[in-house]
Write a structure and sequence with these properties.
6 strands; 145 residues; mainly beta; three-stranded antiparallel beta sheet; Immunoglobulin-like
Length: 145
């Protein structure tokens, strides 16, 4: 959530309204799964229990998930099989891409752009299609942040 584009973290469609006819109500809503970290929250009401809707206070509580930086934490290369293995810190419900470069500037070679998160860490194995190149650099990016 960047203040312009928002990811829905909670939505009620078929359930009855959480608000009744009395005043000074408190409602607790638990997310079905952990959400990605965010700086901005948009509270959007599309249905109420009556003709008016007023909100005097809203509090958000949560537990901080993995705050580890998005970095490669393990790397291996098997010269015989030409297999490369990358492991990085990740978040649930994210999709990642892996790119390569020979000079740390041009990361246009797309190895895979649809790697689904495996939880707090994600491992990706692939075959080195250019074993004759002595140095390869890797960049991993979040596709659906």
């Amino acid at each position: 959530n960047d203040g312009i584009t928002y990811e829905t973290i909670y939505e009620r469609i078929d359930a009855p309204s959480i608000w009744g006819a009395t005043r000074n109500q408190t409602a607790r809503i638990d997310l079905p799964s952990a959400s990605n970290p965010y700086k901005f929250i948009r509270y959007d009401v599309t249905r109420t229990g009556g003709s008016n809707h007023a909100l005097s206070e809203i509090e958000y509580f949560g537990e901080v998930g993995s705050l580890a930086p998005l970095e490669v934490i393990a790397f291996s290369y098997d010269k015989e099989t030409k297999q490369i293995s990358l492991t990085w810190n990740s978040r649930n419900n994210q999709t990642y891409s892996v790119f390569t470069s020979t000079d740390l500037f041009d990361f246009e070679t797309d190895i895979n752009d649809s790697i689904e998160s495996q939880g707090e860490t994600t491992a990706f194995n692939f075959t080195n299609l250019s074993p004759e190149i002595e140095k390869l650099f890797f960049r991993r990016a979040v596709e659906n942040e």
